[in-house]
Structure formats: C-alpha cells, structure tokens
C-alpha cells in the first residue's frame, strides 16, 4: 500500500489475480494484446477528448488526494493542458526520453533507453504568493494578483489560447497522467531498479525504499510524468490510485459502488462530463479493448516515443471552418496534421470510423461504438473486477 503522496513500496506476496468476472462468468482475455513480460493483466484508461471542458476537477481531485503538501507543491500528477500549447511542464514533448525504436524498447537488457532533459523549476512554474490578506483582512478593493517577483510562466499559462485566426481559431483540452507504459523508459533509466510494474495489473510504481533520487527516471520519461520531491529526496509519480482499485478508497459519491468495490482513480470518478473509461486492455468484453483494439478509435499520445502508453485518447472533433462570408467550408478546423503530430497516423482512421458510426446513428441504425462513447452507465465505463477471484 502507499501513504499519501504516492510513497508506494513493493508489494508483499504474489500477484492478486483471478479468473472470473464479477457476475461469475469467465472473462474473455485478449490473446493478441501485447502485455509486458511478467504482467498478468494491464490496467488502462481511455479519455474522450470530445468531452473534456477544461474544468480542472480531475486536477484538483488528484492534488487534494496525493500532492497537496510535503515537497509536492509543484507536482500535478494529473494536469489538463490546452492544445495547441506548450503544456506542463513547458515544452515537455521536446525534452527527449523514451526509446529510439520499438526494438530498443523491447530489449530486455536494463538501462537501454534514450536520455532526455531535466525540466527546470521555471518550466514547471514557481508557486505564487497572492494578496489574499490584503483582500480578506485589510478591506482593500485591489484585484487578486500575485505578489513579489512578476511570474512569467506556470501551469496553464497559455490556457485557451490555441491556434488559428478568427473565425477559425481552435483549441482543445488534453488531460495527462502517467501512462503506465508497457515499456516504461523511466524504469529502464533507474540504475537501482526502483521503478517497476506490478505483476497483477501493470501499474508503474516507485519503490521508495530503493529510490535514491538520482532523477534518471525524470530524464528518461518522455512525457515528464515523474517528479522529484526535493524534501524527501525521492522520485514520485501517479500511482493510478491503486489503493482505490484494491477496494481501499472511499465509495461516497461514486455512483453504483459500495465499500470494498474496486474504485477507479479519483481523476475518473470526479470528472463532471465523465470522459474517462477505466478497465483492462486484455479484457475483450471491456471498454478499453473495444475502443483500442476492436474499433481503433482510442490512440496513444506520441506513439513515436515507443514506450507503449496504456492511457489512450479519442481524438477531438470540431466544427468545419468558416469562409469570410460566414459560410461553412469543407475544411477541418483542427488540422489533421496537428492531430497526427500528437497521436500518429491512426488519427485518420479513428476520426473516419467515428464519423461513419455517427452518421449511421443519424440514419436510425444502432452503433455499439456510439453507445459506448456516450454511455452514462458506470458498469460500462469502469470494469476493474473482471479478473478478481
């Protein structure tokens, strides 16, 4: 188990895997899904970017639960950034890390990875002090504003800016957590092998007893989702809320779940538009397998990093562009080329499939894909007990 702040240690005993789903039926396991060596099942998440409203509820839920103190002030294990934009930390996608090829990623020799750069404190954004006392206790009419040194960057500094020119400007929100990769380059980078994947579900954790804070893992992660705690001198990261998945989390406010149930990560359950689905990549009857493997509409972020992320995204749609006279023109508002930069060439087939299924529904036909993408049933969104004994 872990204490608040993600101080996860290695698990005692063997993997707690099972063979039956919650209704007593035998689960269908995806034989064609590529799992990491020694991993029984791979937990995964799909985020539908067409639903994200940028409210940051997921960010606050994660921060309140895991990173609100103790050297974690600058950490956002879950963040929501505007795209196109520089992201958090700034320009993270250009910092290197990951692997140079699929062959290098699959190499079983430890330490074979592409080193990246350590983000600076300025890239994360310094904590700001605000004039709360002046407003709340001194009766001032001054606006709320940062105090001291003028800030020049911070998380969501470029929120809602996007790209393009009116009336065809565009942006969308991109929530990010640790991808719990099939080939985690952060684990390859650690000389003490303090980062590991849990055998039962593939969640990537940091053994706090083995970690010495060398920060090679921070350099090795191309998504910049490993953080260094300057007070504890240890690396920390998203733990996919694994105590909740083990049934130790609070069930209050989580629709359809009771105490002891496997509860999805807080970023998923607290999301107002419910844009996240959580389950196992190798569960053929679950939402992850269907969206990723069967329909191919959920894609990895920056697949060229070769780490095989297990967080997937349904790419965003947008209204078509407008001409100078205000007429609709048959041109994508969000350029496909930009989406390809983020999600790879699979974007074309994914968007075409969704458009084809939407048109089928408009003609009165049924679509399992559209039903899945629009479901409000937690039992379909979250499928975490399928392999439990």
Describe this structure as you would to a colleague.
The chain is α+β, with helices and mostly antiparallel strands and 389 residues long. It is built from 13 helices and 12 strands. The two termini are 20 Å apart. The chain has helices at residues 57-66, 102-106, 121-124, 132-136, 185-189, 216-220, 242-245, 266-269, 287-294, 336-343, 346-362, 368-374, 378-381; strands spanning 43-48, 79-83, 129-130, 146-147, 172-176, 195-197, 204-206, 226-229, 234-237, 276-280, 299-300, 311-314. It is globular and about 60 Å long. Strand 6 and strand 7 form a beta hairpin. The strands form 5 sheets. It has a 4-stranded mixed sheet with strand order 10-1-12-11. A two-stranded antiparallel sheet has the order 2-5.
Would you summarize the structure shown here?
This protein is α+β, with helices and mostly antiparallel strands. 22% of the residues lie in helices and 12% in strands.
């Amino acid at each position: 188990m872990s204490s608040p702040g993600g101080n996860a240690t290695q698990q005692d005993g063997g993997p707690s895997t099972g063979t039956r789903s919650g209704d007593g039926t035998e689960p269908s396991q995806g034989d064609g899904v590529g799992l990491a060596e020694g991993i029984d099942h791979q937990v995964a998440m799909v985020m539908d970017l067409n639903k994200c409203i940028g409210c940051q509820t997921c960010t606050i839920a994660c921060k309140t639960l895991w990173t609100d103190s103790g050297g974690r002030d600058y950490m956002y294990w879950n963040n929501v950034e505007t795209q196109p934009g520089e992201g958090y930390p700034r320009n993270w996608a250009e910092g290197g890390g990951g692997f140079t090829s699929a062959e290098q990623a699959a190499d079983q020799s430890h330490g074979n990875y592409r080193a990246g750069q350590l983000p600076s404190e300025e890239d994360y954004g310094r904590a700001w002090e605000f004039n709360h006392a002046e407003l709340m206790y001194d009766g001032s009419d001054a606006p709320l504003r940062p105090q001291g040194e003028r800030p020049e960057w911070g998380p969501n500094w470029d929120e809602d800016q996007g790209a393009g020119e009116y009336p065809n400007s565009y942006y969308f929100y991109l929530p990010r957590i640790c991808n719990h990769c099939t080939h985690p380059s952060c684990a390859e980078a650690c000389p003490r092998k303090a980062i590991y994947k849990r055998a039962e579900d593939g969640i990537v954790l940091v053994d706090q007893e083995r970690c010495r804070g060398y920060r090679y893992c921070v350099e090795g992660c191309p998504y910049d989702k490993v953080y260094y705690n300057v007070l504890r001198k240890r690396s920390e990261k998203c733990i996919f809320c694994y105590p909740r998945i083990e049934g130790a989390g609070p069930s209050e406010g989580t629709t359809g779940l009771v105490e002891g149930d496997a509860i999805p990560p807080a970023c998923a359950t607290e999301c107002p538009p419910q844009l996240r689905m959580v389950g196992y990549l190798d569960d053929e009857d679950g939402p992850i397998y269907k969206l990723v493997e069967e329909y191919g509409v959920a894609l990895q972020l920056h697949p060229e990093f070769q780490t095989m992320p297990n967080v997937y995204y349904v790419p965003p749609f947008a209204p078509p562009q407008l001409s100078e006279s205000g007429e609709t023109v048959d041109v994508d508002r969000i350029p496909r080329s930009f989406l390809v930069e983020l999600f790879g060439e699979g974007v074309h087939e994914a968007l075409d499939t969704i458009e084809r299924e939407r048109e089928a529904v408009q003609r009165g036909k049924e679509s399992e894909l559209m039903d899945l993408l629009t479901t409000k049933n937690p039992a379909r969104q979250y499928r975490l007990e399928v392999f439990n004994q």
